[in-house]
């Protein structure tokens, strides 16, 4: 059995877990505070209480040693007790943690091999140094040639750069009407929040009626459990730089304009810079004035969308699954399996 801890912030961690576990040849149990829709590839789901609902968090960083471990928080205590009980009863071969320094450390202290998912950014603080050192393996969901930070090069022998993981990587795109006008622009939001809302896109649509504006996942706007047809039909996609969304756009090979959102450790800004440097997308720093959009859209449509293949989405989830199985398959002499 494989355990798979899924963080509850945003939707990307869950979609990545679903993609990877669908490729695993071993059964996997999800441990998460999220509601997981059916169907899903997990053999079981262990529901964990939230640890961030208290009105006041006392010393959550443990004097700089951790990221989130608030003192006397009932949710934190209960979720860790549930994880310990599940490990004691199930004896998993390994646990994947996406993402939590505290859960990774706790699982490893219970004697279980741990695989952690790396996240772009300046991960040189004490908790990240600690978790990457204790990890038995690290999975980076992007290509090595695009971004190989020093803090990961330190652990090169136990790091797999598998490429961008998209739930749509093996799904064909519906045919597009390439004759149509005006150009269709799709603005994608994310579950982690952002600086753009539906009203912002509607203002652009009013100012630029010769452009066919659509949006998904923005506050105040439309959402869908299956954005793939919308992504494939777009002439240009405006997206944030979250790992899941970037991988979805790469899988569809659509021209893109990327606007990085503020995230801890500069995660999205570093991803966006890698895309700009390798000419996969047009990168902008802020939502532009209406007068700038026509030029940006024309510039994006002039890019070669096949360059997205360099993001290596095809087979990425399977490569991650093989890395996990390799750790789970190890046996150390002198102890019980």
Structural class: alpha/beta
The chain-level mean pLDDT equals 94
Order of strands across the main sheet: 3-2-1-4-5-6-7
The biggest beta sheet is recorded as:
7 strands, parallel
Q: Structurally, how many domains make up the residues? A: 2
Strand content: 15-25%
Number of helices: 11
CATH architecture annotation of the largest domain: 3-Layer(aba) Sandwich
How far do the termini sit from each other? 12 Å
Stretches with pLDDT under 50, minimum 5 residues: 332-337
Query: Helical amount among residues, as a percent range?
Result: 25-40%
Q: Identify the quaternary structure here.
A: single chain
Number of strands: 12
Series of H and E elements: EHEEHEHEHEHEEHEHEHEHEHH
The name of the CATH superfamily of the largest domain reads Glycogen Phosphorylase B
Backbone shape: globular
| CATH fold-level name of the largest domain | Rossmann fold
Name of the CATH class of the largest domain:
Alpha Beta
Radius of gyration, in angstroms, nearest whole number: 21 Å
Describe this structure in words.
It is a single chain. The protein is of the alpha/beta class and 337 residues long. It has two domains: 2-165 and 315-328, Glycogen Phosphorylase B (Rossmann fold); 184-311, Rossmann fold. The chain has eleven helices and twelve strands. The protein has helices at 12-21, 74-90, 101-109, 126-134, 150-153, 198-207, 228-233, 243-252, 267-277, 290-301, 316-328, and strands at residues 2-6, 28-32, 44-47, 94-98, 114-117, 137-140, 159-161, 184-188, 212-216, 236-239, 256-259, 282-284. The strands form two sheets. It has a seven-stranded parallel sheet with strand order 3-2-1-4-5-6-7, sandwiched between helices. Helix 3 (101-109) links the parallel strand 4 and strand 5 (114-117). The chain is globular, with a radius of gyration of 21 Å.
């Amino acid at each position: 059995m494989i355990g798979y801890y899924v963080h509850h912030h945003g939707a990307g961690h869950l979609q990545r877990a679903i993609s990877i576990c669908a490729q695993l040849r071993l059964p996997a149990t999800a441990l998460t505070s999220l509601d997981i829709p059916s169907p899903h590839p997990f053999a079981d789901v262990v529901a964990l209480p939230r640890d961030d609902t208290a009105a006041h968090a006392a010393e959550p960083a443990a004097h700089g040693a951790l990221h989130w471990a608030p003192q006397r928080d009932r949710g934190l205590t209960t979720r860790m007790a549930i994880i310990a009980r599940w490990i004691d009863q199930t004896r998993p071969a390994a646990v994947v943690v996406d993402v939590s320094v505290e859960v990774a450390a706790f699982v490893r202290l219970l004697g279980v091999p741990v695989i952690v998912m790396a996240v772009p950014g300046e991960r040189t603080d004490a908790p990240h140094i600690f978790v990457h050192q204790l990890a038995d393996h690290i999975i980076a969901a992007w290509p090595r040639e695009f971004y190989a930070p020093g803090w990961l090069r330190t652990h090169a022998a136990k790091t797999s750069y598998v490429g961008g993981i998209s739930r749509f990587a093996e799904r064909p795109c519906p045919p597009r009407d390439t004759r149509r006008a005006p150009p269709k622009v799709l603005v994608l939001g994310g579950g982690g929040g952002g600086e753009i809302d539906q009203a912002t896109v509607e203002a652009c649509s009013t100012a630029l009626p010769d452009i066919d504006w659509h949006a998904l996942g923005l506050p105040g706007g439309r959402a869908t459990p299956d954005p793939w047809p919308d992504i494939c039909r777009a002439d240009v996609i405006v997206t944030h730089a979250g790992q899941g969304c970037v991988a979805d756009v790469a899988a569809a090979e659509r021209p893109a304009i990327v606007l990085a959102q503020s995230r801890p450790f500069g995660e999205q800004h570093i991803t966006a810079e890698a895309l700009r440097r390798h000419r996969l997308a047009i990168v902008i720093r802020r939502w532009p004035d209406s007068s700038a959009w026509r030029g940006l859209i024309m510039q994006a449509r002039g890019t070669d969308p096949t360059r997205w293949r360099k993001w290596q989405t095809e087979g990425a989830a399977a490569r991650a699954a093989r890395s996990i199985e390799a750790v789970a398959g190890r046996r150390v002499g002198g102890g019980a399996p």
